[in-house]
TrEMBL record:
Gene behind this protein: hisD
Name this polypeptide is given: Histidinol dehydrogenase
GO cellular component terms, A-Z: cytosol
InterPro entries per record: Ald_DH/histidinol_DH, Histidinol_DH_CS, Histidinol_DH_monofunct, Hstdl_DH
Superkingdom: Bacteria
Record-listed NAD(+) binding positions: 126, 187, 210
Organism: Lacticaseibacillus manihotivorans DSM 13343 = JCM 12514
Enzyme class at the top of the EC tree: oxidoreductase
Length: 429
């Protein structure tokens, strides 16, 4: 793993560069645009054609039956079900803390102002198929939506010749998914965004997918809300001179094994730690089942940056704004206020990133590629919308009428001013 040294400005220039995401490739944009158009025009017919073309599967019924979901649940080992139940318990208890109730402000005489929170009517969850099926992501997406009060949570996942992964079906059942449909790719995103004869239109689409899925989410945004357009996984680690090289290497590889474009990053003031971690990564790579993927990530995307002290390490990480940030130092909680930009933070030497992937409770659907500067993890608030309301009595309106008409006429909007003045005319009721 390459070790970067030099001035802080030089380090910043090296580690904050972002390559253009593959989801912007023109040929992919054009192909996805055609798929969306075809699904909008032909509905289920187009979906069946794409299932045969891309998934090599003939689909007669898109909706997965309750019996099939129950059979998938029963096919899972008790060990897996116990783990999923623990994840559900902790994800639920964490996200229940996010629930907001809106407000009413009636402090001014004759004036009532407020805000009510209304859950979205329907949310759609995309779940990749095959070896990329992650039951944990189903829990992370569906449980906050359920807590928010979303009445209809639907899940789409590519059809599989051997049937949908039982772990996926079990997670859907436990997380409270209301319906599962076997359809994948950009065509599934189009179906969720616009609806077909079989698949209902939703208000928001969430969940990871390949380049075609990510591009489709981007293209339907505006017709429907989306969680985010996520890039490859990232992990940033800030470590002091006492950090354990074997553990640091293991944590960095836990994200490197996701994707050849995943980005493992270590920032430390200790050159000795940097050298030890680099050597340890090479040792661990040789026994990793996904060695080819992880090695490409480490060699092409990963780095270890040497800073003059821990304060500079935090400054650098705030510029990077990583998806996951581990703080492996003494008294890590004392550094929490130094963190301005990160998706999810793991404090201390035992808070390894996979803890958050599965059972801790905080969400693992997180902003990537520096977007933690302005995006947040998925949560309950992502499934509600705010509705404002206001009520004024006649005396209360009279007190502010001249201000309204002055502003309206300043902006050249005479009808706005007259609408207010009409409340004070002789025949006003």
């Amino acid at each position: 793993m390459k070790i970067l040294t030099g001035s802080f400005e030089a380090l910043t220039n090296q580690v904050t560069k972002r390559e253009q995401q593959a989801a912007s490739r023109p040929e992919v944009e054009a192909a996805v645009q055609d798929i969306i158009k075809n699904v909008r025009e032909k509905g289920d017919v187009a979906l069946k054609e794409y299932s045969a073309k891309f998934d090599k599967t003939q689909v007669d019924e898109f909706r997965v039956s309750d019996a099939t979901i129950e059979a998938g649940y029963n096919a899972c080992s008790e060990e897996l079900l116990t783990a999923l139940r623990l994840a559900k318990k902790n994800i639920t208890s964490y996200h229940e803390q996010e629930v907001s109730r809106g407000f009413i402000d009636a402090k001014q005489p004759g004036v009532i102002r407020g805000q009510k929170l209304t859950p979205l009517a329907a949310a759609g969850l995309y779940v990749p198929g095959g070896t990329a099926a992650y039951p944990s992501t189903i829990m992370m997406a569906a449980i906050p939506a359920k807590i928010a009060g979303v009445k209809n949570i639907v899940m789409v996942t590519p059809p599989q010749p051997e049937g949908i992964n039982p772990a996926v079906l079990a997670a859907a059942k436990l997380a409270g998914v209301d319906a599962v449909y076997q359809i994948g790719g950009a065509q599934a995103i189009a179906a969720l965004a616009f609806g077909t004869e079989s698949i209902p239109r939703v208000d928001k689409i969430m969940g990871p997918g390949n380049i075609f899925v990510a591009t489709a989410k981007k293209q339907v945004f505006g017709q429907v809300a989306i969680d985010m357009i996520a890039g490859p996984s990232e992990i940033g680690v800030i470590a002091d001179e006492k950090a354990n090289a074997r553990q640091l290497a293991a944590d960095l590889l836990s994200q490197a094994e996701h994707d050849k474009f995943a980005r493992p990053m270590l920032v430390t003031p200790s050159l000795d730690v940097a050298k030890a971690v680099s050597a340890e990564i090479e040792r661990q790579l040789k026994t990793l089942p996904r060695e080819e993927i992880a090695r490409a990530s480490v060699n092409n995307e990963g780095f270890i940056a040497i800073t003059k002290d821990l304060d500079q390490a935090f400054d650098l990480m705030n510029l990077i704004a990583p998806e996951h940030l581990e703080v492996q130092v003494d008294e890590p909680i004392t550094y929490l206020n130094r963190i301005q930009n990160a998706g999810s933070v793991f404090l201390g030497r035992t808070a390894s990133e996979p803890l958050g992937d599965y059972v801790a409770g905080p969400n693992h659907i997180l902003p990537t590629a520096g977007t933690a500067r302005f995006f947040s993890p998925l949560g309950v608030e992502d499934f509600v919308k705010r509705i404002q309301f206001v009520q004024y009595t006649q005396p209360a309106l009279e007190k502010v009428a001249s201000a309204i008409t002055t502003l309206a006429r300043t902006e050249g909007l005479e009808a706005h001013a007259r609408a207010i003045e009409s409340r004070f005319e002789a025949d006003a009721k």
